[in-house]
């Protein structure tokens, strides 16, 4: 679910890893990569321990189709498989993601009350100095409100990149705009649930190959959680 130390499922697949790229006729681009992370923290929520998180994508003229997964090293960790279809032009981006988890019904169960899929739409704009994104669940096992009705559980984020000490940093804040059971255990009303600071650095292995190392501090005021995770991209 793009539930890792970067911002957003679709942006994560396209930008988080250092991929092996392939081009066909100078138009179609493809990439594949994987991250090894010390913990799986997504939008201020703790979703697992040490995990390997592969990704792959193909894009053409702004359109992209990407896959992302997470497999924990511990038996009890939930496995995840996400598919995202998106479009980006300059700073604008929009996408639809199908998140699936193996902790419930099998993959091909799509009933409104019998599914482990969550469907989400994203829209955002990257202004350079900061990026704004809005995410809303619109189908699947997406959470309910206090009356037991579909909550259209949503999340909004603001992320700003900056440089400090010769390294690349990001600062972000995320919040849920209304009550739902999908985030923060059903906390009521508007809740800030993700305050984060991340940093990345390239580690040289040879003259032509390097590994990106990244780390992120995250605080969730809604649940009083605090996390520090790190990882390497391949």
Features:
234 residues; mainly beta; 12-stranded antiparallel barrel; 17 strands; globular
How much of the sequence lies in strands comes to over 45%
CATH architectural label = Beta Barrel
Order of helices and strands: HEEEEEEEEEEEEEEEEE
> Could you name the ranges where pLDDT drops below 50 across 5 or more consecutive residues?
3-25
Number of domains: 1
Helical content (DSSP H or I, runs of 4+): under 10%
Shape: globular
Give the count of helical stretches: 1
Biggest sheet statistics: 12 strands, antiparallel, barrel
Organism: Phocaeicola barnesiae
Protein name: FrrB
Keywords: Signal
Signal peptide: 1-24
Describe this structure in words.
Residues 1-24 form the signal peptide. This is FrrB. Keywords: Signal. The protein has 234 residues and is an all-beta fold. The chain has one domain (9-233): Porin (Beta Barrel), CATH 2.40.160. Helices cover 3% and strands 59% of the residues. It has one helix and 17 strands. It has one helix at 9-15; strands spanning 22-24, 28-37, 40-42, 45-48, 51-60, 63-72, 80-89, 92-101, 110-111, 114-115, 117-126, 131-140, 154-164, 167-176, 191-204, 210-220, 225-233. A twelve-stranded antiparallel β-barrel has the order 2-5-6-7-8-11-12-13-14-15-16-17. Strands 3-4 form a two-stranded antiparallel ribbon. The protein has a two-stranded antiparallel ribbon with strand order 9-10. β16 and β17 form a beta hairpin. The protein is globular. The protein starts with 8 loop residues before the first helix and ends with a strand.
């Amino acid at each position: 679910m793009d539930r890792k130390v970067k911002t957003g499922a679709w942006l994560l697949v396209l930008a988080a890893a250092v991929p092996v790229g392939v081009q066909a006729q100078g138009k179609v681009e493809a990439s594949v990569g994987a991250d090894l992370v010390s913990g799986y923290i997504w939008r201020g929520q703790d979703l697992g321990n040490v995990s390997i998180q592969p990704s792959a994508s193909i894009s053409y003229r702004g359109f992209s189709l990407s896959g992302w997964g997470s497999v924990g090293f511990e038996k009890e960790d939930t496995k995840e498989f996400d598919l995202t279809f998106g479009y980006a032009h300059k700073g604008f981006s929009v996408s639809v993601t199908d998140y699936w988890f193996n902790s419930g019904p099998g993959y091909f169960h799509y009933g409104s009350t019998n599914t482990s899929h969550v469907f989400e739409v994203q829209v955002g704009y990257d202004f350079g100095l900061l990026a704004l994104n809005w995410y809303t669940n619109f189908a699947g096992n997406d959470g309910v409100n206090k009356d037991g009705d579909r909550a259209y559980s949503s999340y909004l984020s603001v992320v700003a990149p900056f440089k400090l000490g010769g390294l690349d940093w990001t600062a972000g804040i995320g919040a849920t705009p209304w009550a739902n059971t999908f985030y923060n255990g059903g906390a009521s009303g508007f809740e800030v649930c993700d305050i984060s600071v991340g940093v990345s650095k390239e580690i040289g292995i040879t003259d032509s190959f390097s590994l990106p190392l990244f780390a992120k501090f995250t605080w969730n005021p809604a649940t009083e959680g605090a996390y520090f995770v790190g990882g390497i991209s391949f």
